[in-house]
Specification:
single chain; alpha/beta; Rossmann fold; six-stranded antiparallel beta sheet; globular
């Protein structure tokens, strides 16, 4: 799987931009604020049809425009060419592959899959449970595109159940309707939890394997512990008062433990970054399908020895990797001076 070109129109800071990716490793270099992350964001959007920085499409549109356009070309692992075109406004989006409108993520992922590693991923450890649920959900989606239907069903039931609870708070309680919506929520929750728990266990095993192999002197034990939301005191009265569902998979947590302790509370920032790096490497292994890797200025504050190890782990033969980095960084020097230079393309973003 390979993306060979990207065309951007009125996306973020760019009026127009065309980039060619004709080497396994591409390095987008330039000063802060030049738009390097926006290029990564565009490549990410073309896979997941959403941004990793905002949930609002209008924030992706360049100032004084009302839409943006992305066009990507590439080829599959069997050298079959593909083309993606995405046009979006604040309210509508059209996605075409090889000239035909797409109707499912499977059709999209059959052509184009990416895994991104950037500064925003620090929230996987430091942020709210929603960040970790979203990471697991997206990782499952890459392996099983039909998972999106279970996610959509859960969200639809939650919207309708919350609307019912909000209406009840203003009028008479209908116990029968409450039980019907509760049963539907529990069924949808069970399906989501089954997939999340199974994937978390597989990911944890691969993560620990990578840590043992590449950081043997650290003696680290990493655990992904799935924790269901506390529903012991979830009564109709409390939900009606809150006007929202206080039970369901949308309240679950995936705790990340570092030697038995909360990584969020007891690991350092550098340890957080190392943990996230190996977490994404584990995701790549578990995926068992080709994927393009996008690294947005994430290894620039590691020392030279650690940077070299991490780059070698990422840049395996047959895998396309796109980095962003300031010129002169440790990563920049590694890729310029080491044996990667023969298969690297450096592109200045100014």
């Amino acid at each position: 799987m390979f993306v060979s070109s990207l065309k951007i129109k009125t996306f973020r800071c760019f009026e127009t931009l065309t980039l060619e990716f004709n080497e396994p490793i591409t390095v987008l270099e330039g000063p802060n604020g030049a738009g390097k992350t926006s290029v990564i964001e565009a490549l990410y959007y073309a896979c997941y049809l959403r941004s990793f920085k905002t949930h609002l499409p209008r924030e992706l549109v360049r100032w004084e425009s009302d839409h943006f356009f992305l066009a990507l070309e590439g080829h599959s692992e069997t050298q079959e060419p593909w083309e993606l075109k995405i046009a979006a406004t604040a309210l509508k989006r059209l996605v075409k592959a090889d000239g035909v409108a797409l109707s499912s993520y499977k059709e999209l992922f059959d052509r184009y899959r990416v895994i991104v590693l950037g500064a925003h991923d620090m929230e996987l450890v430091q942020g709210s449970p929603e960040e970790r649920r979203q990471f697991i959900d997206h990782a499952i989606l890459l392996t099983d595109p039909l998972y999106i239907q279970k996610m959509r069903t859960l969200k639809k039931i939650l919207r309708q159940r919350n609307a019912f609870l909000s209406h009840v708070s203003q009028g008479r309680f209908d116990a029968e309707t409450y039980e019907v919506w509760t049963e539907q929520l529990q069924k949808a929750t069970l399906l989501i939890r089954e997939e999340r728990k199974a994937y978390s266990k597989i990911l944890e095993a691969e993560l620990q394997k990578l840590v043992n192999q590449h950081l043997p002197s650290k003696g680290l034990n990493i655990e992904l512990r799935y924790q269901e939301g506390d529903e012991t005191n979830c009564s109709p009265e409390r939900e009606i008062s809150a006007r929202r569902s206080l039970q369901g998979a949308h309240l679950d947590e995936i705790q990340i433990l570092w030697n038995g302790q909360s990584a969020r509370r007891f690991a350092s920032r550098g340890q957080h970054k190392l943990l996230i790096y190996f977490l994404k490497l584990a995701q790549l292994t578990v995926l068992q399908k080709p994927a393009i890797v996008l690294i947005d200025d994430f290894v620039t504050d590691f020392d030279d020895e650690r940077t070299e190890l991490l780059v070698q782990l990422l840049c395996k033969k047959g895998r396309q990797v796109i980095f962003t980095t300031p010129s002169g960084s440790s990563l920049f020097r590694q890729l310029k001076e080491k044996n990667f230079s023969a298969e690297c393309k450096f592109i200045g973003i100014n």
